[in-house]
Amino acid sequence: MAKSSKYTSKQPDANGIIAWSDEENKIWSELVARQLKCIEGKACDEYMEGLKKINLPQDRIPQLHELNEVLGKETGWQVAPVPALIDFDEFFRLLANKQFPVATFIRSREEFDYLQEPDIFHEIFGHCAMLTNPDFAEFTHKYGQLGYAAQKKDRVYLARLYWFTVEFGLMQTEKGLRIYGGGILSSPGETQYVYTDKPEISPLEVLDVLRTPYRIDIMQPVYYTINSIHDLFDISQMDIMSLVEKAKELGLFEPKFPPKEKLAS
């Protein structure tokens, strides 16, 4: 997580306001318009309800205090401005304190379709609507507390749990497969891809998730589904660290993706 980024987060002024350029607001506007079309009939009801609550402006990047008013009222959460990349320690500390880290930069037009690091569009459009949901919010809070207290070698296992829920989680509903993970909801390509026959989709068992390797730079070959958002609350009440110990004993599953090619030095 502490790799370098070519992006620099913008600093809020004394009143907490970030000055965005016309071009940055235009990129936001285009990203939101495109993605709202993409997620139609695919995002879970809880996400769509949350989207109504946070009432994102479409013509400009929202200011963080606008989101904080809604999140504070709904679940006691806040968003916190952070540099482009933060380390695990800071990431877990923020979540443990009900603060969701938001990198205050937006992707360039060259990386309009995909960038590897999370920008303000991914963090706000992908995640903030779900943070209005009490079950999702409690899961994320508990996850932060566990991660902050965990040792470095255990955090790698916990990262998989976050990856396959908060970032790339799916839900089986009466209406069919729905998305709640922000990594999918903010990606036009992945929103379509999960509905193809390419990925393997399995019911979520926490132990399996902790043992599943992933890569951040490809479409996911594996996704896990819950049956309702309340399942996340149930997971938050489990003894997750004892499952981490079990996962360490059993070892990781065979990756379902090729190893990353090493760049020639």
From TrEMBL:
Catalysed transformations (reactions): (6R)-L-erythro-5,6,7,8-tetrahydrobiopterin + L-phenylalanine + O2 = (4aS,6R)-4a-hydroxy-L-erythro-5,6,7,8-tetrahydrobiopterin + L-tyrosine
Domain of life: Bacteria
Keywords, alphabetical: Iron, Metal-binding, Monooxygenase, Oxidoreductase, Phenylalanine catabolism
Residue sites binding Fe cation per the record: 122, 127, 167
GO BP terms: L-phenylalanine catabolic process
SUPFAM superfamilies named in the record: Aromatic aminoacid monoxygenases, catalytic and oligomerization domains (SSF56534)
Cofactors: Fe(2+)
Pathway recorded for this protein: Amino-acid degradation; L-phenylalanine degradation; acetoacetate and fumarate from L-phenylalanine: step 1/6
GO MF annotations, alphabetized: iron ion binding; phenylalanine 4-monooxygenase activity
Domain Biopterin-dependent aromatic amino acid hydroxylase family profile: from-to ranges: 1-265
InterPro entries: ArAA_hydroxylase (IPR001273), ArAA_hydroxylase_Fe/CU_BS (IPR018301), ArAA_hydroxylase_sf (IPR036951), Aro-AA_hydroxylase_C_sf (IPR036329), Aromatic-AA_hydroxylase_C (IPR019774), Phe-4-hydroxylase_mono (IPR005960)
PROSITE patterns from the UniProt entry: BH4_AAA_HYDROXYL_1 (PS00367), BH4_AAA_HYDROXYL_2 (PS51410)
PANTHER family: AROMATIC AMINO ACID HYDROXYLASE, PHENYLALANINE-4-HYDROXYLASE
Family: Belongs to the biopterin-dependent aromatic amino acid hydroxylase family.
Stated name of the protein: Phenylalanine-4-hydroxylase
